[in-house]
């Protein structure tokens, strides 16, 4: 195997008799070096330009860095074979304008009838150089960043009826942060159909679609090359390597790429882009971008028509995902439980709905899920559920009503706060300097809530990204019958093990870089849900307690304390998500928050005049001496006891882990158990009327876990495939 | 420590009888962990290349390292084919400022700077920067002459960011890499503050990293002249040399697998 650089060096040199008779100093020097340039620094083969240095040489000729007499820095490309038909291709491209394309300024002839293309000089490194420095591939973020720029350029070319035909890392540059595509319009010079492939280099062959062998040059060959480039950026290697041009070409024609090195979400895209049958590939660059995971989509790429509204091309618009659908995916990570409850409330609030609202989306998706699961039930179960539901509703009508009204009120409050925050943040975002990552992120999607999320719940994402790919593979089957899906099965096990850890790291990183605004938006949704869940759990807890004589104020106290407690966990946890902070510091913070909750709980109990019935004699054995100040004569806790109990309870266990978006299961019974255990241990020291204290702990734990966002690990592919089939 | 360094230096000098040996030693690098970078530097090992060589009569004089007041003659552009263009400052004192039509500084930058913004100086100990306007060294504002080391980040004016590199342990030559998207005037890929030797080659610790080159090529100063040394035959301005060749102000050097040109600024 050889690297791209060596491979290019091995390409046959153009025969010297094809060159012009003009002799320069360099022409007299011994041949043999791979970096041989015809013109030396200071030469002026083309009137008006002074060559400074050679930049490189492709299959078509040499490229120089030159400065015009006026001082403009340009790249000069020497095209030795002056074929008019082919030059028409260049002329056609001369007036294309796109910030992801290297601008072509002019085409000129020198005195020796050589043709020179005068074009923009890109200062930065080529993707090839970058990949040489990163033999194991780029980070997913970098790869997506490059890829979106490349895709935008190629999309623009396709949009103008031009096929690049020579997409490869050596033709892609980065100048001032901007991805630039070069060598378009010249590609007929390097086509393999030219006699004996005289000017072709193996570097090009690595990116050459199989149908090129048959002389087919549709847009599909660019899609194929995009697939190879994406593969190479993510893994550091091209999928088909070989000792010779023939071997590489043969692999393009017959071999299946091994996709197990690619991150999840990209395998299907690359597989489809690399389909042997051109018709099985993505029909357009837009479609390919659409199939990529959201991280790639939210970057620079936008379909041409949004960037150039005045041009309005007549070609089929690449399907862009409606922003609300994307947002819905983001939050559809499965809150069916509370969604069912909130569904009623949401109906009332519908008038004020903005589709980017996470809570609203959760409610809507929850409702959809609920309806789906309802449809799946068999008739007897449906009847039973309906009867029980109606009975419960009739029995607790007042309670439910009392719940819905505050819930709606809470939601309206949340909407107001949220819109104020978002409005404020957007105003701020406008002033972010151009070029900063923040600007790039907030400028990218044209949605009112411009918060592209680096990591999405992949579980829901698979549903959208997988399907087109699955269709593609069935379509590709007749063309490539070789080994359907072998690599998937073989790699699944290994992948699962390896990817989980890597995925968690990546997810944690992307969580850690979330902006305050994103966190606040998340938090607002979580807090509302936590309030709803805590209220419901309070009802459940009161019912479970089995006492008929539950007083309204006891229930109110329980609800209020639980809601406050769950908020107390959620608020700091949101800002700790994705980072490994100092545990002591976090516990101290939780202690302080706990004291506040304790004070609030005490205040609530006094204002509501709560009478706890069973206050005495639970754990007399470790009662501490300061009980006199802590408890009144009846043994009921006073403010210090409240402070101590709640402070200790929130500091006793690592509550923030229950709100960690990377927790493995959304609601873990163990976590609830741990919370209850913690509260029970605390109760040994500072007696608190039970089971109220334990109930609060259990409700806080449950509502925090249900309300805190969760990012699910990628689902392994065979499982998804099974599900889909 | 100092004594040990001196002993080492004496011993090395004994072994390095001629320029070829010195270069051979340069190519193959120092024995790791013997004395370390600082020891080698303090022992003046790099100087040995110059010290042991014979005076060359056929070379064009270049500004000497010892001359502190740089003139326009002290700069050149090094155009390395397939690699990049480099702004080489030969003076021991390099003044940096904004590129204006009548800029009088050695290192004119197309950036929002003062006409004379800062001055770099090289001496036996290393490099210093004298801030004449706002300069930040590793994110901290400096107001007096400060030492700069390999990896130091320099911020000047509102946006210019440069990374100071001294990549080769055996050469006092330093490189200024552009961190921000600014360029010199005339434009270049990087700035080289050349001491006595300038090493071009495939290794990442070379001053000019040239991917794909078969071996290192060294530019070095001797008795006021600039020379090029290669382990394979080279051709300078059409004349063939076996390993070492004197360079003119606008020389073109072509070897097996590499080529570069000098241009006076």
Number of strands of chain B: 22
Average of the residue pLDDT scores of chain B: 79
How many angstroms does the end-to-end distance of chain B come to?
43 Å
For the largest beta-sheet of chain A, the strand count, sense and barrel status come to:
5 strands, antiparallel
Strand-pairing-aware structural class of chain A: mainly alpha
Estimate what percentage of residues of chain B fall within beta strands.
35-45%
Give me the Rg of chain A, rounded: 33 Å
Q: Estimate the strand proportion of chain A.
A: 5-15%
Quaternary class = heterodimer
How would you describe the overall organization of this protein?
The complex is a heterodimer of chains A (725) and B (265). Chain A has 725 residues and is mainly alpha-helical. Helix content of chain A is 52%, strand content 6%. Chain A folds into four domains: 4-120, Phosphorylase Kinase, domain 1 (2-Layer Sandwich); 127-323 and 464-477, Orthogonal Bundle (Transferase(Phosphotransferase), domain 1), CATH 1.10.510; 328-449, no CATH class; 485-725, no CATH class. Chain A contains 27 helices and seven strands. In chain A, the strands form two sheets. Chain A has a five-stranded antiparallel beta sheet, covered by helices on one side. In chain A, strands 6-7 form a two-stranded antiparallel ribbon. In chain A, helix 20 packs antiparallel against helix 21 (552-576). The longest helix of chain A has 33 residues, at 397-429. The two termini of chain A are 39 Å apart. Chain B has 265 residues and is mainly beta. Chain B has a domain at 2-51. Chain B has helices spanning 2-15, 19-28, 36-42, 45-51, and strands spanning 75-80, 84-89, 93-98, 107-109, 118-122, 127-131, 135-137, 140-142, 146-148, 153-156, 160-165, 174-178, 190-193, 197-201, 208-209, 217-222, 225-230, 234-236, 239-241, 244-246, 252-255, 258-264. Chain B has a twelve-stranded mixed beta sheet with strand order 8-7-10-11-12-13-2-1-22-21-18-19, with no helix packed on it. In chain B, strands 4-3-5-6-9 form a five-stranded mixed beta sheet, with no helix packed on it. Chain B has a five-stranded mixed beta sheet with strand order 15-14-16-17-20, covered by helices on one side. Chain B starts with a helix and ends with a strand. The model of chain B is unreliable at 13-59 and 63-72 (pLDDT under 50). The interface between A and B is medium-sized, with 29 and 28 residues.
């Amino acid at each position: 195997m050889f690297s791209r650089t060596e491979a290019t060096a091995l390409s046959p040199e153009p025969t010297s008799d094809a060159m012009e008779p003009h002799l320069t100093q360099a022409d007299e020097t011994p041949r043999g070096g791979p970096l041989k340039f015809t013109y030396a620094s200071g030469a002026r083969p083309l009137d008006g330009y002074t060559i400074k240095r050679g930049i490189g040489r492709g299959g078509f000729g040499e490229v120089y860095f030159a400065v015009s007499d006026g001082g403009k820095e340009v790249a000069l490309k020497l095209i030795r074979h002056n074929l008019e038909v082919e030059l028409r291709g260049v002329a056609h491209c001369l007036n294309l304008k796109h910030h992801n394309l290297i601008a072509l300024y002019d085409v000129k002839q020198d005195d020796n009838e050589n043709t020179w293309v005068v074009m923009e000089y890109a200062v930065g490194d080529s993707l090839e150089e970058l990949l040489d420095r990163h033999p194991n591939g780029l980070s997913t973020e970098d790869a997506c960043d490059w890829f979106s720029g490349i895709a935008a350029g190629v999309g623009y070319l396709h949009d103008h009826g031009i096929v690049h035909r020579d997409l490869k890392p050596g033709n892609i540059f980065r100048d001032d942060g901007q991805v630039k595509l070069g060598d378009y319009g010249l590609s007929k010079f390097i086509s393999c159909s030219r006699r004996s492939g005289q000017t072709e280099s193996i570097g090009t062959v690595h990116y050459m679609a199989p149908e090129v062998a048959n002389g087919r040059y549709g847009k599909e060959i660019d899609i194929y090359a995009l697939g190879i480039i994406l593969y190479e950026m993510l893994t550091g290697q091209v999928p088909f390597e070989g000792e010779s041009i023939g071997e590489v070409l043969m692999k393009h024609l017959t071999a299946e790429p091994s996709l197990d090195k690619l991150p999840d979400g990209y395998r299907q895209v690359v597989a489809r882009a690399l389909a042997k049958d051109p018709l099985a590939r993505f029909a357009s660059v837009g479609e390919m971008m659409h199939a990529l995971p959201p991280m790639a989509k939210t970057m620079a790429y936008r379909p041409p028509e949004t960037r150039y509204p005045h041009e309005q091309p007549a070609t089929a618009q690449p399907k862009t995902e409606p922003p609300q659908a994307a947002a819905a995916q983001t939050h559809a990570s499965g809150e069916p439980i509370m969604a069912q409850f909130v569904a009623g409330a949401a109906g009332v609030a519908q008038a004020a709905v903005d589709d980017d609202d996470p809570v609203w989306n959760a409610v809507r998706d929850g409702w959809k899920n609920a309806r789906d699961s309802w449809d799946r039930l068999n008739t007897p179960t449906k009847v039973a559920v309906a009867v029980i539901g109606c009975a419960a509703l009739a029995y607790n009508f007042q309670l439910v009503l009392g719940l819905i009204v505050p819930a709606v009120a809470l939601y309206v409050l949340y909407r107001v706060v949220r819109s104020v925050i978002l409005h404020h943040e957007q105003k701020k975002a406008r002033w972010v300097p151009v070029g900063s990552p923040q600007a790039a992120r907030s400028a990218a999607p044209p949605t009112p809530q411009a918060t592209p999320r680096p990591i999405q719940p992949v579980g829901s994402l698979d549903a959208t990204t997988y399907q087109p790919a699955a269709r593609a593979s069935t379509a590709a089957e007749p063309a490539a019958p070789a080994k359907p899906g072998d690599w998937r099965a073989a790699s699944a096990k290994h992948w699962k093990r390896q990817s989980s850890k890597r995925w968690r790291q990546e997810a944690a990183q992307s969580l850690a870089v979330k902006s305050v605004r994103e966190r606040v938006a998340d938090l607002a949704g979580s807090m509302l849900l936590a309030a709803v869940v805590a209220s419901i759990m309070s009802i459940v807890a009161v019912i479970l307690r089995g006492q008929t004589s539950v007083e309204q104020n006891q229930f109110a106290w329980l609800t209020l304390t639980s809601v406050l407690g769950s908020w107390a966990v959620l608020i700091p946890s949101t800002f700790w998500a994705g980072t490994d902070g100092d545990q002591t510091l976090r516990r101290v913070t939780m202690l302080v928050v706990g004291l506040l909750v304790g004070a609030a709980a005490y205040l609530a109990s006094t204002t509501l005049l709560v009478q706890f019935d069973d206050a005495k004699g639970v754990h007399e054995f470790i009662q501490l001496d300061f009980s006199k100040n802590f408890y009144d004569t009846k043994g009921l806790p006073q403010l210090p006891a409240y402070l101590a109990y709640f402070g200790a309870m929130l500091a006793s266990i690592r509550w923030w882990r229950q709100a960690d978006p990377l927790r493995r299961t959304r609601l873990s019974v163990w976590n609830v158990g741990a919370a209850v255990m913690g509260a029970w241990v605390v109760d040994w020291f500072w007696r608190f009327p039970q089971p109220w204290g334990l109930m609060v702990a259990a409700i806080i734990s449950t509502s925090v876990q249900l309300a805190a966002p969760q990012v699910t690990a990628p689902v392994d592919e065979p499982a998804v495939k099974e599900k889909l089939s | 420590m100092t004594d040990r360094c001196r002993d080492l230096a004496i011993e090395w000098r004994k072994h390095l009888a001629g320029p070829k040996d010195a270069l051979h030693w340069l190519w193959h690098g120092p024995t790791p962990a013997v004395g370390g970078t600082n020891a080698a530097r303090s022992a003046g090992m790099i100087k040995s290349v110059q010290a042991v060589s014979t005076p060359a009569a056929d070379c064009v004089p270049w500004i000497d390292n010892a001359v502190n007041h740089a003139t326009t003659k002290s700069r050149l552009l090094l155009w390395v084919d397939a690699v990049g263009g480099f702004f080489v400052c030969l003076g021991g004192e390099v003044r940096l400022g904004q590129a204006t039509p009548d800029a009088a500084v050695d290192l004119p930058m197309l950036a929002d700077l003062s006409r004379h913004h800062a001055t770099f100086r090289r001496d036996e100990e290393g490099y210093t920067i004298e801030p004449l306007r706002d300069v930040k060294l590793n994110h901290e504002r400096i107001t007096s002459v400060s030492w700069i080391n390999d990896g130091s980040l320099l911020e000047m004016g509102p946006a210019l960011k440069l990374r100071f590199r001294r990549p080769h342990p055996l050469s006092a030559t330093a490189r200024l890499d552009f961190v921000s998207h600014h360029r010199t005037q005339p434009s270049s890929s990087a700035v080289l503050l050349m001491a006595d030797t300038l090493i071009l080659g495939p290794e990442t610790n070379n001053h000019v990293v040239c991917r794909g080159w078969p071996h290192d090529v060294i530019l070095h100063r001797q008795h006021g002249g600039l020379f090029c040394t290669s382990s394979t035959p080279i051709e300078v301005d059409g004349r063939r040399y076996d390993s070492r060749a004197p360079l003119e102000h606008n020389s073109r050097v072509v070897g097996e697998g590499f080529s570069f040109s000098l241009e006076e600024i």
